[in-house]
Design goal:
By secondary structure, this protein is an alpha/beta fold. It is built from 9 helices and 8 strands. It has an 8-stranded mixed beta sheet, sandwiched between helices.
C-alpha cells in the first residue's frame, strides 16, 4: 500500500532546513544506499542499450540539455555560455555526461557515481569516442558527493551541477543537497530531474511503468521517496544565497508512448519534472 498523509508530512521534514529530522541526520557521512547500488549494479550491463533497462533515460536526455539552456536564458546574471564546467552527480553509465562533454561550449565534465560497476561501464563506453579521450574533457570518478574535496574558490566550482534522476533514490535528501551546494559557482546552476509524490505518479511510474508495461525494471522507484516541487522550493527558500531575481525554474515532462518525452508546463505538480536554481552571483 502506498504512503498516507502522515508519511508525506514526515518526508517533507527531510527537506526542511530547520527541522529536528534534518539536524538528527546532518552528520551522516554518506548518501549511498547499498540497496540502491545493488539494484543499479544489476542494470549496468544494459545501460547503453537504447532499448534496454535505461531506454527512458536515453529518450529523456535531449530534454535535459534543453532545460539547462532554458535556465541559462533567464536574465540577468546568466553565466557566459562558453567554457562551461559540469559536475554530474550520480552519473550512472554516463548518458548525460558523455553528451555534455561533446558540446562545443563545454570545457570539462566531471562525473561521479558510487557504483564501481556502473562507472566501469561508463568508462568503457567513453573509450569508443576519441573526442572524449582529450585531456580534461571527461573524467569519471567512483565516488559519492561526500567524498569529493569541497572547492575553495569560485575557480574550482562548476557552472552546472546536475542531479538527473538521482534525488528520489536518496534516503536523506536534505543533507545530500546541502553537500552539493558548495560545488556550484556564483551565477551557476544546480539542475535536477525527479518525480512529484502524487497518486498520478504512483499509477504511472509504479503500476504502469514497472508492473504492467515493464518499461522500467521493478524496484527502480520507491514512491515514498518522491519529492514535490514545492518541497524543493521550501528547502531552497531556507538557503541563503540562492534563486534571487528569478533564478529558479521548474518544468514538467511527460512520456508519450511512440513520441517520447515532452515538456509539459504544470506537470511538475503531478509527475516527472525538471528543477533548476541559480546560486546568487557575487556582487
Amino acid at each position: 500500500m502506498v504512503g498516507t498523509l502522515p508519511m508525506s508530512q514526515n518526508y517533507l521534514l527531510r527537506l526542511s532546513r530547520g527541522s529536528k529530522f534534518l539536524r538528527s541526520y546532518a552528520t551522516s557521512t554518506s548518501s549511498v544506499n547499498p540497496t540502491e547500488i545493488s539494484h543499479f549494479n544489476a542494470l549496468a550491463s544494459t545501460w547503453w542499450d537504447p532499448y534496454g533497462s535505461s531506454r527512458l533515460l536515453h529518450l529523456m536526455n535531449p530534454l535535459r540539455h534543453d532545460f539547462i539552456s532554458s535556465c541559462h536564458a533567464l536574465k540577468p546574471h546568466s553565466s557566459p555560455q562558453k567554457d562551461f564546467r559540469y559536475l554530474d552527480i550520480g552519473c550512472g553509465g554516463g548518458i548525460f555526461a558523455e553528451s555534455a562533454a561533446r558540446l562545443p561550449k563545454v570545457a570539462s565534465v566531471i562525473a561521479v557515481d558510487p557504483s564501481m560497476e556502473v562507472i566501469e561501464v561508463a568508462k568503457q563506453h567513453a573509450r569508443k569516442d576519441p573526442i572524449l579521450q582529450e585531456p580534461g574533457r571527461l573524467q569519471y570518478l567512483n565516488q559519492a558527493i561526500e567524498d569529493l574535496e569541497v572547492p575553495r574558490s569560485p575557480e574550482e566550482m562548476y557552472d552546472i551541477v546536475s542531479l538527473f534522476e538521482v534525488i528520489e533514490h536518496i534516503s536523506r535528501p536534505a543533507p545530500f543537497l546541502e553537500n552539493c551546494l558548495p560545488f556550484v559557482k556564483p551565477g551557476g546552476w544546480l539542475v535536477l530531474s525527479t518525480i512529484a509524490r502524487t497518486w498520478t505518479s504512483w499509477v504511472t511510474t509504479k503500476v504502469i511503468a514497472e508492473d504492467i508495461v515493464g518499461i522500467v525494471p521493478k524496484g527502480t522507484h520507491d514512491w515514498s521517496k518522491y519529492i514535490n516541487e514545492h518541497e524543493l522550493r521550501s528547502f531552497f527558500a531556507a538557503q541563503k544565497g540562492w534563486g534571487i531575481n528569478g533564478g529558479i525554474k521548474a518544468l514538467g515532462c511527460i512520456y508519450v508512448p511512440g513520441l517520447g518525452w515532452k515538456m509539459a508546463s504544470g506537470g511538475e505538480q503531478w509527475g516527472n519534472y525538471f528543477f533548476g536554481i541559480r546560486r546568487d552571483p557575487e556582487v
